[in-house]
Amino acid sequence: MYSAFPYKYETHCHTSEVSACASNTAEEIVKSYAKAGYSGVIITDHFFNGNCNIDAALPWKDKVDLFCIGYENAKKVGDRLNIDIFFGWEYNYKGTEFLTYGLDKKFLLDNPDLLEWPLELYFDKVHEANGFLTHAHPFRERSYIKKIRLFGKKIDAIEVFNSGNDKQIFNERALAYAQEFGLPQTAGSDTHNVENLAGQGTYFPERLKSINEFIKYVKNGKSYISIPED
């Protein structure tokens, strides 16, 4: 199966420039993924309503500029090492998180009231702008997650394997959920620390030219998930 899908991409990754819980810089992360043989990485730092280290009191433009630094630093290194780097973020709603793909810095700058939107308006606005939403680790149980919330086909894909889950049952439930609703699937390492790079990812038949190609392949079921066995 791998021979038909030789290009491996990390879909869920955090940098210390932006995510308060990450311990490695964008440069360290990209170098580690390049060494591990990945074709690309999607930087998905925690957004302002998550575990983000950017001062909430700053003006919106300043916050957006700082938020994009993790991706921008990663992109510089990726260009040098010939590894694709794409932009995304992890949006948080009371502990329920969504990997948001296909949008850019301009979208953020143009929507300074974004944090005031009700959750379903966020979904609508992302989709209106041709963005793509993956429900990250939907069945994870942690102290900061007070309630498991599921949204069916209001979401575009389900993260069916997340290396950051400390129990395999959380991934098994996510896979069953995606299958029940016929939703596309992704997998990611949820990297915060590269000392023990988890090595998870989503595989593609061709090298991706853009985040929009990532979305197209996932949406059309032309990607491959490797589910590790216990």
Describe this structure in words.
It is a single chain. By secondary structure, this protein is of the alpha/beta class. It has helices spanning 26-35, 60-67, 69-81, 105-109, 119-128, 168-181, 211-219, and strands spanning 7-10, 40-46, 84-93, 96-101, 132-135, 157-162, 185-188, 202-204, 224-225. It has a single domain (2-225), classed as Metal-dependent hydrolases (TIM Barrel, Alpha-Beta Barrel). The protein has a nine-stranded mixed β-sheet with strand order 7-6-5-4-3-2-1-8-9. The chain has seven helices and nine strands; from the N terminus they run βαβααββααββαββαβ. It starts with 6 loop residues before the first strand and ends in a 5-residue tail after the last strand. A hairpin with a 2-residue loop joins β3 and β4. It is globular. The longest helix has 14 residues, at 168-181. α1 packs parallel to α3.
